[in-house]
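User: Last request for today: this protein with adenosine-5'-diphosphate, please.
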Amino acid sequence: MKLDTKAIRYLTVEDWRVLTAVEMGSRNHEVVPTPLIQQISNLRGGSGVHKCISTLAKANLIAKVKNAKYDGYRLTYGGIDYLALNAHRKSSTVYSVGNQIGVGKESDIYVVASDSGLQRVLKIHRLGRISFRTVKTNRDYLRNRSSGSWMYMSRLAALKEFTFMQVLRDNGIPTPEPIAQNRHTIVMSLIDAFPLRQISSVPDPASLYAELLELIVRLASFGLIHGDFNEFNILVKEDAAPSSSLNSDEPPTITLTPIVIDFPQMISISHPDAEYYFDRDVNCIKRFFERRFHFTSDESGPFFKDATSNVTKRLDVEAEASGFSKKMARELEKYMKEVGVDGDGGVSGEGAKQAEDRASIGAEDDDDDECDAPQSVGDGKDVADQPRLPDATLFPG
Ligand code: ADP
Ligand code: MG
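Assistant: Here's the final one, the structure of the complex with adenosine-5'-diphosphate:
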């Protein structure tokens, strides 16, 4: 399910119209009957529609499905990717697509650029993709579900992530800047930093450790638990402050700022398993600091009870008010559980095995960290190693 933007510039207005018609038709048809596509797209002259359908099918944006009852088409991941990209183009959010910088279990991450050349990150949610391929029970389960559930759930994940990123950032939690959300995708600012996972040493582990635990506690005081707070989802920005002394030989002081990403699994402190996830987040950081930096804190905790005894603001409630409803939260959580998504911190069953295999492709070390996950594409290269400039212009002229 690689994002292949080659065909995007060749699609005509009519092709886009037909692609949109297939998307609309999939709301209540698993396989959209050809006459319905024709009807929704409302193109003059029947042959035009067939030409468009054939173009779209060749580009793998729609796929023909022979059904017992009728023939028709379904939208593919490629098709919905194109629709989302086109919407980002129209709103001047994305002009060109560059390198893929990350491949998670449930998402693909690309560097993109706006028309003024500003680099950004496009995250495409692909919920259920591992489970589709590996977990038999899940496959059976998914087969029996209503049409396009992966599509709907990927949209929910994107909407959730975008909504939470907005409320978190508005309240001073360091996250990327959320720029746009469309369908199963979000666009956010590019953070020029390494994930903690890729950092082999820090000058002062104790202070970074304290800062990270303070973040977990601050989130809880806002009514939230990240649920996947680990070395993959914390980007560490390095800023060199010029030396304060007059002696120019003195090395500059490096300040490290953690920035939190990846929010589809975030939960409220009112969730029945809140304490479990809070402790898991805390323990992920503890374990990582012990293994990587040989740092163990003298203090125990923080503890869920203390962290939630002083709730200052309910961002879980704010997120709900800004459009990510309780019902959506429940639907997404149920689906994620059923297909075995448990964040970077672990997936269950076969999915976990696959994730580990994929992790080893890009892994830098053989830590058998519990908080394990696939990361960058290629030989362990990440954001900072790769040429960044988006090369493929989507829509010339
Ligand atoms: P997943 O849900 O698949 O784990 P993440 O949101 O954690 O996806 O992103 C995966 C990887 O992509 C991150 O570990 C990081 O290396 C990179 N990444 C994601 N968002 C950004 C961003 N805004 N800026 C820079 N790198 C990013
Ligand atoms: Mg992640």
